[in-house]
Amino acid sequence: MTTYPELQTFLLSFLPFIILMIFIHFGWLSFILLYGCKDIAFSPYGEYWRQLKSIVICHLLSNKQVKSFRRVREEEIGVTISMLTESCGSIVDLGELMVSLANKITCRTALGRTYDHGSKFTKLLTRFMNMLGVFCVGDYIPWLSWVDRLKILEGNAKTIATQFDDFFDCVLKEHRSMKSRAGPEK
């Protein structure tokens, strides 16, 4: 920081405004797309967020849980390395390769299987990410929010949220049917 206390105070006085603008930007679209901002990334800091964080750390990111997915990480890294060795002498987009690796590991650990680049899930995920990055005029100039309605943002966001709900319902049904075919655990 600076050695001038007046300047430091002046700069820090803008911090709440900047945080508010960031939250406003992710305002109503993230509210629609992210289940009312009840996830750990978008929920405001408070008692609910602290409880959510402790659940995530105790159950999803525990040492035992992270170790249980070691084989998945090793397999996907092995596949990525073999792809690199096969493409020796040709141009490789490492950024795309790393995103693909992260997606494959995340899908296998969270959803139970990978989804190809052109699959319905990856297309839906791309639409979701694009919708989160859309500029909403009404978030910054409320009396111009009618412009957002002309762009059909709310309808598109609701459609994407519904499609994600349907997708996750299918994933849950798939997992339940696999468990019922496997029989009761001992």
TrEMBL record:
Keywords: Heme, Iron, Membrane, Metal-binding, Monooxygenase, Oxidoreductase, Transmembrane, Transmembrane helix. PANTHER family: CYTOCHROME P450, CYTOCHROME P450 FAMILY 71 PROTEIN. SUPFAM superfamilies: Cytochrome P450 (SSF48264). GO terms for biological process: sesquiterpene biosynthetic process. The keyword Oxidoreductase applies. The keyword Heme applies. InterPro entries: Cyt_P450, Cyt_P450_sf. The chain crosses the membrane at residues 12-35. Signal peptide: none annotated. This is Cytochrome P450. Belongs to the cytochrome P450 family. It comes from Lactuca saligna. Pfam families: p450. GO terms for molecular function: heme binding; iron ion binding; monooxygenase activity; oxidoreductase activity, acting on paired donors, with incorporation or reduction of molecular oxygen.
